[in-house]
Amino acid sequence: VSYDYDVAVIGLGPAGMAVSIMAAEMGLRVLGIEKRSLGGECMSVGCIPSKVLLRMAHARHAVTRFPDLALSETPLPAPTGTFRRIADRLQFIDEKKTRALFEKVDVKLREGPASFVDPHTVEVGGARFTAKRIFLCVGTRPAVPPIPGLDRVGFLTNETLFSLDRIPESLVVIGGGAFGCEMAQAFHRLGARVAIVHMDEHLLPHGDWEAGRLLEATFAQEGIEVYNGRRISEVTTAGGVIAVRTNVGETLRGECLLVAAGRKLDLSELHLENAGVEYSDRGIRVDTTLRTTCRHIYAPGDGNGVHISSHAAMHQGMVALVNSILPRPFRRNFRAYVVPWTVFTEPQVAHVGWLERDLKANDVAYEVIESKYEDYGAAMAEGVAVGSVRVYASPAGRIYGVRIIGEGAGEMINEWGLAIQNRLRLHRILFLQHSFPSMSFLSKRAAESWMVNRMKGPILRKLVRLFV
Ligand SMILES: Cc1cc2nc3c(=O)[nH]c(=O)nc-3n(C[C@H](O)[C@H](O)[C@H](O)COP(=O)(O)OP(=O)(O)OC[C@H]3O[C@@H](n4cnc5c(N)ncnc54)[C@H](O)[C@@H]3O)c2cc1C
Fold it and tell me: Cβ contacts of residue 182 below 8 Å, gap of 6+?
């Protein structure tokens, strides 16, 4: 049988980019179909614009943090052109970088959604193409909870937030996860009055309670209101103000309302039944090699519902492509790789490997080793003495998981990911020289604490005495 393409990729976000660009570099004939924009949600309405906004907000906030530098002007002037600047940067990246990456890919951009005609044929914009292997990299969309009245007020999601023309005077955020927290801090630092309301007992329910509580304390200091454990009974609007009523009778008012309440699948346009690809509300069904219920169709990225992150999507794209080519014994299990998780608030929150609650739930004996920013001279001197590096390990130094709260957590967590993935024990971190005075020096400090604890044990003490 001959096909128009060796590989067809539906959706060109992080997962689809990884597949299509790698496959084209391998010399394969590649078709890429994207109904919205190159780079997917991540580039246009996700990771990148949200981090640009946070960077601006943190820079503006830094002015107030160092009053002794005589930089502060009270009150700070209202920021102007925030969203225009984000749009300009995204356009610059698109023109200067992203498009060039797709040089060797036959791209169908904004010609409509792709749908299956049969297991090897996809249709887009009325044209049909066949491919030997097909990769479904379709991601997810924002979930909108069934709150009475929500559909009658003009709420925002991540798909519309970055198209605002100015920072609103006030914002109510529904959802206390990573996106909700990041945007609450960004908008507050850019001058809006902000309240977060959500159902869970603490912020960042995907992480651990301690991180959520610490972030809440920081938010309280900054003036961001947090309402935990609330259900929303009704949303109304009058005179340009949106009112959110909670189950305990509070009414939170804001000029804008942001719904940051999780993700949902949207596979309706794909006609997966024509290809025999099975899925549920949780995601497209894949095996450990990322293959769907149809042998030559793979589904890397958020669409399979296993992880929601760009780095996991890119990694899965690479793994899926390699698996589609290699003979069975060489195929990779995508679940065998650790996935770090970072929230880019100030302080940052990151973890990799097992959380303490996972260890408890699985009855794993562990020891907690912690090095605190408040005990580190460099962090104190730089005015960032908040948070800690917390390691969960076996007495023999096997690292089960690491949680970092504090300056640089999102960068520091990668070293621990490498250690866990390669089964390096704590003494390997101890014997690695970390540049000083970087914040990652606190990771080495944690390994030192572990070693000091070992030194307190009778066996090592006896050995030391013997050698001395
Ligand atoms: C506000 C926000 C901030 C985030 N911040 C981070 C962060 O800091 N770090 C991080 O790791 N992750 C972050 N994420 C998550 C990250 O954006 C996603 O995990 C990532 O984009 C998933 O990549 P993907 O390739 O699976 O899907 P997507 O990026 O969603 O791409 C899927 C693409 O498929 C296209 N598509 C869908 N159906 C069809 C069809 N039928 N035909 C043609 N095209 C189709 C869509 O248009 C889309 O472009 C954030 C998300 C949001 C919303």
Answer: 50, 54, 343, 344, 345
CA-wise closest residue to 279 among 206, 270, 146: 270
Q: Are 137 and 319 in contact (CB under 8 A)?
A: no
Does 72 score more than 60 pLDDT?
no
* DSSP-derived 3-state class of residue 429: helix
Helix (H, G, I), strand (E, B) or coil at 407: coil
Distance 24 CA to ligand 1 centre (A): 21
Ligand 1 binding pocket (C-beta < 6 A) is: 10-11, 13-16, 33-36, 40-42, 46-47, 50, 113-114, 137-139, 158, 179, 269-270, 301-303, 308-311, 313, 344
Count the alpha carbons within 13 Å of 137 in the hemisphere toward its beta carbon: 40
Q: Which of 17, 22, 47, 144 to mutate to test the pocket of ligand 1 (most atoms within 8 A of CB)?
A: 47
For a mutational test of ligand 1's pocket, the pick from 123, 138, 266, i.e. the residue with the most ligand atoms closer than 8 A to its C-beta, is: 138
A 10 A CB-CB count for 297 gives: 26
Query: Rounded to an integer, what distance in angstroms lies between the CA atom of residue 339 and that of residue 322?
Result: 19
Cα distances (Å, whole numbers) of residue 376 to 350, 384, 413, 429: 19, 10, 18, 18
pLDDT higher than threshold 90 for residue 117 = yes
Q: Residue 65 C-alpha to ligand 1 middle, in angstroms?
A: 34
Average pLDDT value for residue range 221-235: 97
- In angstroms, the CA 377 to CA 44 distance is 40
Of all atoms in ligand 1, which is nearest to the CA of residue 161?
1
Structure tokens at 6: 């060796």
Closest-lying ligand 1 atom to the alpha carbon of residue 307: 19
The whole-angstrom separation of Cα 36 and Cα 15 is 15
Is the pTM above the cut of 0.90? yes
Contacts 24+ apart (CB under 8 A), 375-381: 376/441, 376/442, 376/445, 377/437, 378/436, 378/437, 378/438, 378/439, 378/441, 379/406, 379/407, 379/439, 379/442
